[in-house]
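Is this the right way to post structure tokens for a design question? Let me know if I should format differently. Anyway, here goes:
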């Protein structure tokens, strides 16, 4: 038998020690298949006796077509399985949501949009479907917007401005008009059916960082790094209102959202502030004070008219704009980069620097679900047309689809 203080199976000088027959107390049979693999255990051990748990992946499908960071995502408004994404690899993709099994078998249809000579030469940072779902636009920092026919999977045309990169693009709520904000300080508008420039909106003195048509399609609202909001007449390209100065933002605008009745704009800025502006008068009619770092995203509930704002201060705040007060604050572990209301429900999703997608109950402020899967920053979110899935894209190079059918 081994002597106390010595390694079992070895003597004091390292020699093997043999057990005599009379030393055996009991003999127990062991099934070798049940024994752990010692080599595998050694590899999993992190050195302090603890075994690392593999990060959970809650996604029901993941798209890995991109070869670099993915920045933009959009879901078709008419086809619940059709998704577009764009990234740092200078490419955009149109792809279909499939089952996890199908993805593993590589049977999911994947359509490559921007490659070779018909593609982009710089980051594809913005993608959007037309309201009728028949066209898809991919905007790039190379100064071009490629427009694709989603049914035929063919390039319909290429729209160009001054050559400066496009930060964002939006479709008219009813027609095939596109507006895009550029690094050249201008907003550009085209007719996508004819690949023709209709107007250039000049007035901002720095990059146009955010913008949209009003839901009624009658006006255009844009925000800029010059700390101003401009409200434009799309027919004349003339400015109706310029919002700036005392009582408004003191640093560049980062995001904006417009109420469904086209009467109110909510804007966020790098200066931590959120302001409410009347579209018709161009007057600041309220402020939502609560964030302590850059406001990165804004969304307005279609049912409750509540405003959600996400910030680098690790907070998603739900506001009642009528009272200009917060309803609840949803705390995160890191900064909030993106958000999306889940249809007409009371739930809102947030994307975070920690790679998580969280679903929040806007009535209680409680986190109803946390989706894991990404290993880096979530850059953008989009909800499928049927409301059953949310798609997130990340700096980790993947797009992931999570089941949200229980939150309708």
């Amino acid at each position: 038998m081994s002597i106390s203080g010595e390694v079992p199976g070895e003597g004091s000088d390292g020699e093997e020690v043999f057990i005599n027959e009379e030393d055996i107390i009991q003999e127990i049979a062991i099934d070798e298949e049940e024994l752990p693999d010692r080599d595998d255990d050694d590899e999993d051990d992190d050195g302090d006796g603890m075994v690392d748990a593999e990060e959970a992946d809650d996604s029901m499908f993941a798209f890995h077509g991109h070869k670099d960071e993915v920045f933009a995502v959009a879901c078709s408004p008419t086809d619940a399985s059709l998704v577009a994404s764009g990234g740092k690899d200078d490419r955009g993709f149109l792809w279909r949501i499939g089952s996890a099994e199908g993805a593993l078998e590589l049977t999911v249809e994947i359509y490559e949009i921007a490659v070779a000579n018909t593609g982009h030469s710089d980051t594809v940072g913005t993608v959007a479907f037309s309201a009728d779902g028949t066209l898809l636009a991919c905007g790039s920092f190379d100064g071009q917007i490629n427009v694709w026919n989603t049914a035929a999977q063919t390039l319909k045309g290429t729209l160009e401005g001054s050559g400066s990169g496009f930060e964002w693009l939006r479709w008219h709520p009813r027609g095939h008009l596109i507006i895009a904000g550029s690094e050249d300080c201008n907003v550009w508008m085209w007719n996508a059916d004819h690949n023709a420039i209709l107007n250039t909106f000049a007035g901002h003195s720095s990059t146009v960082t955010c913008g949209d048509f009003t839901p009624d399609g009658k006006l255009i609202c844009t925000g800029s790094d010059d700390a101003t909001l401009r409200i434009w007449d799309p027919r004349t390209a003339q400015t109706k209102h310029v919002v700036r100065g005392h009582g408004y933002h003191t640093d560049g605008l980062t995001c904006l959202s417009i109420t469904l009745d086209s009467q109110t704009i909510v804007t966020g800025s790098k200066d931590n502030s959120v302001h409410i502006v009347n579209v018709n008068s161009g007057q600041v009619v309220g402020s939502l004070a609560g964030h302590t770092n850059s406001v990165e995203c804004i969304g307005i509930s279609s049912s409750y008219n509540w405003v959600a704002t996400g910030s680098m201060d690790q907070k998603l705040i739900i506001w009642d704009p009528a009272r200009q007060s917060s309803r609840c604050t949803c705390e995160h572990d890191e900064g909030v980069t993106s958000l999306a209301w889940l249809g007409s429900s009371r739930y809102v999703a947030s994307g975070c620097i920690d790679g998580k997608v969280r679903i929040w109950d806007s009535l209680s402020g409680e986190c109803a679900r946390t989706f894991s899967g990404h290993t880096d920053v979530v850059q953008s979110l989009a909800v499928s047309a049927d409301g059953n899935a949310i798609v997130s894209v990340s700096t980790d190079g993947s797009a992931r689809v999570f089941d949200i059918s229980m939150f309708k």
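Format looks fine. Someone answered above. Worth noting: Confidence is low (pLDDT under 50) at residues 1-10, 38-53, 99-118. The CA atoms of residues 183 and 207 lie 4 Å apart.
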